[in-house]
Write a structure and sequence with these properties.
It contains three helices and two strands; from the N terminus they run ααββα. The protein is mainly α. It has one domain. The relative contact order is 0.07.
Amino acid sequence: MVRSNDDRRRTRRGQFATGLILGLVLAVAVLAATVSAQGGGPAEAAKLRLLSDPHATKSFWTNAAAPRQVQGRRVAVHARKFRPLALNTTGLRSVLARAPR
């Protein structure tokens, strides 16, 4: 099969466009990896805190002592791992009082 010059040009343009797109994708991936490896400083840390706790509710929770076993009571759940927490209800109430209805 004999190909015309127009067909050859279209093939070369397609290959060039594909190579250009792949190069741009690779450049963006390398840039993103470099920026994430650098950390980004205090502003980036503040953004991450907002993303992980947008309503600042983690400050209402503190570690609590493990509950004691009560004699004569059967436990329904046997957790392999747990973390007892205490809730600061006074602080939470003050924040909720300012929340929109």
